[in-house]
Amino acid sequence: MSWLVRMNIESLLAYQNKLIDSYAWHQALWQCFPNLSDKKRNFLTRVDEQPGGFTVWILSPEKPCCPAWCPEDRFSVNEIASSFFSHRFYAFDLRANPTRAIVQRKLDGKPILNAKGKIKRGKRVPLVNKADLICWLERKANIGGFRIVDFSPLEVGPMVENYFSQKGNKAYHGSVQFRGILEVIDIDAFQKTYQLGVGGAKGFGYGLLLLAPVNLK
């Protein structure tokens, strides 16, 4: 069972509640789950800035409730029926955080190995090249039970740096929006991917697949 929430938040309301960056939204959306420990985060979020405000999405196996700062008429929640996953093709919209890990190397250029003899990786950096981004998405699709169809254009937006402040420290995530049509190959793996999200930084509003079934003959 999954629940999908949509909130329409006006800019003034967001400003009044100090919802100024992804970390502020990260904290505020926890209030939709008053009985959920912060160590058991099992929901995905997405915040889309629109003219005059924001559209906020939450996908969760637990039914979310309307937080005190959100007017009830701006909060809607719907249970996702199991029949929703009976389709073969879906139009999708994904805002993700595609990254790669930098390999740590010695002065002679050889990779540094950890105690288990595996290559030690350093910090992760955003992908910006379109070809790299497409390869990243295709890898995620391959393990996620779906594929990106080749008979419909895949839209790949530019990498956007989203800065935020967390406990006084400045940081950012690289955000890329993908839009296209996918074909389900493995329904069980696809449903798991839908629930768990795609890529990293999920707690900061990335990885949620917005889907709409399409009938292709």
Question: Which features does this protein show?
Answer:
single chain, 217 residues, alpha+beta, Alpha-Beta Plaits, 2 domains, 4-stranded antiparallel sheet, 4 helices, 18% helix, 38% strand, globular
Please provide a brief summary of the model.
The chain contains 4 helices and 12 strands; from the N terminus they run βααββββββαββββαβ. The strands form 3 sheets. Strands 5, 8, 9, 10, 11 and 12 form a 6-stranded antiparallel β-sheet that branches. The protein is globular and about 45 Å long.
Topology of helices and strands:
Blueprint: E1 2-10, H1 11-16, H2 22-28, E2 44-50, E3 53-60, E4 75-80, E5 89-96, E6 99-103, E7 121-126, H3 130-144, E8 146-148, E9 155-156, E10 160-166, E11 169-184, H4 187-196, E12 209-214
Antiparallel strand pairs: 1-3, 1-4, 2-3, 5-11, 5-12, 6-7, 8-11, 9-11, 10-11
